[in-house]
Amino acid sequence: MSRLLREHGLAFQDALRRLGGQFVAAFLNLLVIGIALSLPLAMYVVLGNVSDFSRQAAAEPQLTLFLRPDADATVARNIESRLKGHAAIGRYQFVAKAVALEDLKKAAGLSGIVEELGRNPLPDAYVVTGRPDGAEALEALRSEAATWPGVDHAQLDTLWARQVEAVIRGGRTVVVILGSLLGVALVAITFNTIRLQILGRREEIEVSKLIGATNAFIRRPFLYLGTLQGLIGACIAWGLVMFAVGVLERELGVAASLIAQDGVLRRLDIRDTIALAVLAGGLGWFGAWLSVTLHLRRFEPV
Amino acid sequence: MITLSGVTKRHPGGQEAVRRLDLSVARGEFVLLTGHSGAGKSTVLKLMAGIERPTEGTVTVSGQDLGTIRSGALPYLRRNLGLVFQDHKLLLDRSVFDNVALPLRIAGFPGADIGKRVRAALDRVGLLDRERGDPVTLSGGEQQRVCIARAIVHRPAVVLADEPTANLDEAYALEIVGLFRRLHEVGVTLVVSTHSPTAFGDARVREVALRQGILVRSGEARA
User: Fold this and answer.
1) Which residues of chain A are within 8 Å of residue B84 when distances are taken between CB atoms?
2) Domain extents in chain B
3) What would the mean pLDDT of A140-153 be, rounded to a whole number?
4) Distance from CA of residue A105 to its chain's centroid?
5) Does the beta-carbon distance from A6 to B103 stay under 8 Å?
6) Superfamily (CATH H level) for B2-218
7) Distance between CA atoms of A151 and A164, rounded to whole angstroms?
8) At what angle do helices B111-124 and B96-106 cross, to 10 degrees?
9) CB contact, 8 Å: B73 with chain A?
């Protein structure tokens, strides 16, 4: 056991020495791997933030019933009596057209323009909040309420969130495809790096085989080198994405607080980080294994 | 210890390097393979080390048939051999110490043991003061001695040496011969190829002469 550990320790040291021995070339390689990994990773983080935002919006589904401009108090009372005790409804609120106009003036700073209109263009409305996870029931209510007398238009506020979710699903597929392609690129980069290393150490490998080195002994430092390349590339990608999220958060300012409740955008958590390290390290290992297995066959003696 | 029975080695072009060779090397024996260039001496050594496989016949080393041995078992067999190459095969980007330590690192020896054994081997070949040196700064004779130190550092039972005195002047050649004699005295089995057997003139050495891959003369086996 201690012998195996010692051999692994030596192979690891050898891999580190090789990586440090050609610092500039190794650094450029690692940078390419890091940037390649950071593209799908950044998309993953962006989609995560958008997904959080849409899920947040969809968690409390809201239905707005806009009344006809000519709807009077009696019509409004009739609608209210239909809303009362409806199973799909958590709560509701009547928003009079005058109140809506005041809110509009305050919220958007459009008081000047609104004053210019001369009349209030907004209708009375009921804002209906569904029960948690009651989006489907509220969807049914929307269809029903659209036919009620006095209702001009029924608008379900979660509809856009669902559309965003659909876009996110598509985006996730793009991330998987892009990630797979760049994963293949990582394997190819590692394959080529290891190939060059093997060719540069041809004499050493041949002599080692002549004096009793097993293929496992020869393969080991290259496998560590490939894995290290993947892991360091993953660290670079992680750093790039975290830095980019920080910059984006600062640049977005107030808009960031619209996306995330506390104004802090979602970053890579510990699970994401571990998954990234395992994936990148694994792909680096695989690229190295492929390269060393294919090239060792050409070496004499067998 | 080493037996070649009816061994023929035919190269892909059809040329036969060794033809129907029968040869046995007993434990502790010192065998000189002699003959001109192209006689098949190096091929015989490669067959004994499992570097080449026979086209016909069998090669047995320490009871293991090299024709049927698993390729995974071959490295472990080679760890019991010490190989000395005519062109030294030293790694020029490593120090003398690291070159000699290579077989021990491959065999998984602990660091402290490696230091002791490498120094002992270098002392034996008279190069202890050059352990941190660069192989390219050494003379041909010194490089050959480093190669011998690497071959004996793990104390193998058998040493196979291919033209170890070639390209060396007389004084260096005698040094190398002296080293092999000392190894023989401590019981190591030696098979050495050479085209100048007079340098090894010793009653305890058996000469096996080859010509165009055929055994033409074999002295009596003596340990």
Assistant:
1) none
2) 2-218
3) 88
4) 37
5) no
6) P-loop containing nucleotide triphosphate hydrolases (3.40.50.300)
7) 27
8) 130
9) no
| Chains A, B: CB pairs < 8 Å | 54
Rounded CA separation A294/A302 (Å): 13
Here the ipTM equals 0.86
- Measure CB to CB from residue A211 to each of B72, B106, B110 and give the nearest one: B106
| CA distance linking residue A256 with residue A258, whole number of Å | 5
Q: Domains of chain A, with CATH numbers?
A: 2-57+162-296 (no CATH), 62-157 (3.30.70.3040)
CA dihedral B3, B5, B8, B9 (to 10 degrees): -20
Which chain A residues are Cβ-neighbours of B107 within 8 angstroms?
A: 212
What the block records as the tokens of A290 is 């492929």
User: Tens of pLDDT along A76-115?
Assistant: 888 888 888 787 788 888 998 888 888 777 765 666 777 7
CA A28, CA A17: separation in Å to the nearest integer? 17
Q: With beta carbons less than 8 A apart as the criterion, state whether B9 and B17 touch.
A: yes
Average pLDDT over residues A58-62: 69
Chain A partners within 8 Å of B91 (Cβ): 203-204, 207
Q: Which of B133, B141, B151, B12 is nearest to B81 (CA)?
A: B151
Question: What's the CA gap between A34 and B126, in Å, rounded?
Answer: 51
Cis peptide before B135 (omega within 30 of 0): no
- Virtual CA dihedral for A104, A105, A107, A110, nearest 10 degrees? 100
Could you tell me how many residues make up chain B?
223
pLDDT in tens, A4-27: 888 888 889 888 888 887 788 888
Query: A128: closest CA among A196, A181, A66, A212?
Result: A66
Distance from CA of A209 to the nearest CA of B (A): 7
Q: Please, are residues B107 and B154 in contact by the beta-carbon 8 Å criterion?
A: yes
Sheet holding A89-95: strands in order across?
A89-95, A125-130, A62-67, A151-156
pLDDT band at residue A179 using 50, 70 and 90 as cut-offs? confident
Residue A260 banded pLDDT, cuts 50, 70, 90: low
Chain B residues closer than 8 Å to A209 by CB: 75
Contact B200, B192 (CB under 8 A): yes
Residues 209-228 of A with CB under 8 A from B: 209-215, 217
Which residues lie closer than 8 Å to A144 by C-beta, 6 or more apart?
none
Contact yes or no for A104/A110 (Cβ under 8 A): yes
The Cα A7–Cα A219 span in angstroms is 12
Question: How are beta strands A62-67 and A151-156 bridged, if at all?
Answer: antiparallel
Proportion of chain A above pLDDT 70, given as a percent: 87
Instruction: Please give the Cα distance from B23 to B33 (Å, whole number).
Output: 11
Other beta carbons within 10 Å of A163: 11
Q: Which of B80, B75, B42 is nearest to B61 (CA)?
A: B80
